[in-house]
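Table S5 (text form). Sequence records supplied for joint modeling of the two-component complex.
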Amino acid sequence: MAIKRRMSHLASKVPNTNKLGHTHINPNSQWVNNKGAWFTHIIYIAFLKYIFGIIPWISTETSWTLTNWVYNISQYIMFHAMIGTPFEVDQGAYDGLTMWEQIDQGAQFTPTKKFLTVLPIFLFLLSIHYTHYDVITFWINIAGLIIILIAKLPLMHRVRLFGINVVEGDEDEEQHPHN
Amino acid sequence: MSNPPAPSTLAWAWAQIIDTASLLPGSKIVIRYIKNSYQNDPFRIALEVFLLLFVVWYLLEKRYRIDHHEIPLNKQEVDELIDDWVPETLVPELTAWEQEELARAPVLSSGQSSKPVLAGSQSPVLNLASYNFLGLVGNEDLKERAVHTLRKYGVGSCGPPGFYGTLDVHMDLERKLADFVGADEAIIYSQGLTTTLSVIPCFSKRGDLLICDEGISFAVQKGIQITRSQVRYFKHNDMEDLERILREIRQEDQETKRTITRRFIVTEGLYINSGDVAPLPDLVRLKEQYKYRLILDESYSFGVLGPRGQGLAAHYGISTDKIDILIGSMCNALGSSGGFCAGRSELIEHQRLSGSGYVFSASLPAILAVYALDGLEILNDSRGGPIMSSLRANSEVMAKGLRALTRSQPAVTLQGANGTSPIIHLRLDRNWARTHLPLSDDAEVPQGTRTPLPIATRVEFEKVLQQVVDEALSKGILLTRAKYILDQERSVPDPSIRVCVSAAHSKKETEAAVQGIRNAVTKVIGSF
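The corresponding structure-token record, covering 707 residues in total, follows.
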């Protein structure tokens, strides 16, 4: 017993790989990594721009603004608003997490995350290149982009602002150890 | 305040930059893009540059895990850790008391039954140590049927039920069990303990809420531990304390606006650790009032309580529907092996893919399934009545006799001597032990009854109880102390002799057993 207690101060520092090692692939977020899923984003943006572009009374500025916003809102709903998983993975390890936090088991700067971050930025840059936004439209466009980008930053991982996405009763296991 | 530079100077500088840049190949495209984007607004171009820099930074960052707090250890620390590490011995050295315990374990020369013969002796002893409540273990008819089954089906099923382990007898047994307890459907598991271990985590997951009795058995404790749910404990069989906790949680819910949909109250029907019977009507009232589901472990009450042994619901004359998840065992009263869970069809079907003990274990050997089936048949037909009334009568005789003993002998206390339960715990009184037991310095008896005994004191208590067990055995009564895995129990009860009444004994034999226990207790206690 005495020996165990002596080593405990160091042993507690060693990360418990068992707890961090994710044995199961999360089917809720795994498909996002598929190249087909990436390509769908581009098709979706082209489709939006096309639809808003052929409506006769809509100006170029408005059609780009709508494309920007509809795409950003879609991303927000898909990756930052819906929480949890319909599947039973690692005894609820992903309960209360957004899709963005679930992608690649919570790892940061993975290819999929890079793609999904860069895409709305390029969409925005493309839109200001092809239009002559006035000040208000310009700020409307960039506001949507900023909200989407903040939600994606690594420092926002598992961080909840203004009570958004907070799930009560979903505590981490560290907070109530057994026995 | 200095004058701002003239616009012409800026324009000239800009023209210079463009001229120089245009010398680079491909720069024309870039310049055209910047000119288009510029649109007379330096802020926009600055923002564009910032966004591009952000993209470059984001793309160049390396992948990492945000919750991976790796602490680098230097060589000295690593060496220290390695030096400190002592592998746990495969067979730990036994303490003197553990060796004594092993040496005193009874060895049978006959088969297991309600009256087995011990090695080195000729006459049978009265077995009050096994959970053979109905006397189905050692029943000659059942044994013969079991041998026939063995010839037909072989020994094991060699596969989990979901693959090729399901036999006709398993489906038969599931149907009969469901009919017997009065549930829609039942599912059988191949081992009694793992039934509880599988069923509880099958429904309650991380983030869910469990409200448990403090006096639950080892199996339920472990089942709860696996769920990773939030757990609250209420005082053993104390419905007021349960209601207090339920009210507290309701208030917390309202304050935090949380919505936990899966909430369970978990108890046992007949507590193996105390012999108490759970007050089902109150539990049902509370769970309906506060909207919980009830998980009831009837491992010991199945086959024992109720007019025909259907369990706790029948004992109180309540419909089995009120128990949402009923866990039963076939290892105890039925004298077979395995366990079952009974309830509504949806709950049972869920377990066929999610109950880990069902999915990942080979199914119950046919011989044991048939043994359980035959036991159920006995309970169902005319043979069941006499067995149940014999069990009731013997339980009452035992409870009455032992209560008389505690009246004349203040050194012992009883738990479970309510006349209903065939399980009765005979404990040493803490007050008596404090004044009469020769305790060493590190062994002391804490005040009150709620603080668990220190290990050293436990051993002293156990030694006295073992003397009672030995004394009773010399008079032909086989008793046992209740044994626990001390470091795994949440709050371990005081040491006790666990008396298990059996229907296979006659009233006279039970009376003789009571007398034997009384004599043994009086003799051992008198020596202190």
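Note: Residues 60-81 of chain A form the longest helix (22 residues).
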